[in-house]
Amino acid sequence: MAGFPWTCAQCGAVNDPAARRCGTCAGVAPGRARARALWVLLTLMVVAGVAVGGVLLFAGQPRPSPSSPGPFPEYTTPALPTTKTVVTTANGVTPPVTPPTTTSTDKPCPADAARYLPGGTGTALLVAQTAKSLVTICRIPDGRIFYDGQARGQAASGETHIMLPAQAVGDGFVAVNGEYRYQVDGGRLVVSAGSEVLSDEELTTVG
């Protein structure tokens, strides 16, 4: 290319072929500029290759398993123990529940009320009276409770006597016959029909 003007690769100016120098930017001749450009390109390619190789090498390494030892060891929540109570007999059959029974210290239900109980016997939970009635609360051996009400001084009949299933409520007892409710609580016998109170009498314990 000697003897012909050439264009500077850096600034694009037409330069003096005799000086082989870029008069505008003092760059090197085209041959040297091309060699330097190739050298820079080759250097960039090497750097890029090393970077890509490093990434591939890092990605190819196996990841540590969660159980591998490290600064933060794996924590496993311990299983909570459970308890279970099983009652069995020698033949593997669960024993039946035995209903409560009277003991020698229990007061028997009075005969006037006991004769109307299922089985004819029971334990007296309460024996009391009002000015007009005799009230007896008895529990039979299978655990059921009954309310017995009798008119004082009169023979038992459909008009003067009633026996009803009852239940313990708080510190007292309640028996229901249709719309009628008999409540024994707080030393009183309250007989009501719906929201109407028919009688409210003081109870006095007998015996």
What does it look like?
- This protein is an alpha+beta fold.
- It contains two helices and eleven strands.
- Strands 10-9-8-7-6-5-4-3-11 form a nine-stranded antiparallel sheet, with no helix packed on it. The protein has a two-stranded antiparallel ribbon with strand order 1-2.
- A hairpin with a 2-residue loop joins β8 and β9.
- The chain is rod-shaped.
Layout of secondary structure:
Blueprint (H helix, E strand, L loop, with lengths): L5 E2 L6 E2 L14 H31 L50 H4 L8 E7 L3 E7 L5 E7 L9 E9 L2 E6 L2 E6 L2 E6 L2 E7 L1 E2 L2
Antiparallel strand pairs: 1-2, 3-4, 3-11, 4-5, 5-6, 6-7, 7-8, 8-9, 9-10
**Given the structure, what is the number of helices?**
2
Strand order of the largest sheet: 10-9-8-7-6-5-4-3-11
- Biggest sheet layout: 9 strands, antiparallel
How many structural domains?
A: 2
Distance between the termini: 143 Å
Query: Radius of gyration, Cα only, in angstroms?
Result: 55 Å
Instruction: Write down the CATH class of the largest domain.
Output: Mainly Beta
Q: Which structural class fits the helix and strand makeup?
A: alpha+beta
Q: How is the CATH topology of the largest domain named?
A: Lipocalin
What's the count of strands? 11
- Percentage of residues in DSSP E strands: 25-35%
Average pLDDT metric: 74
Low-confidence parts lasting 5 or more residues at pLDDT below 50?
66-105
Question: What are the defining features of this structure?
Answer:
207 residues, alpha+beta, Lipocalin, two-stranded antiparallel ribbon, 29% strand, rod-shaped
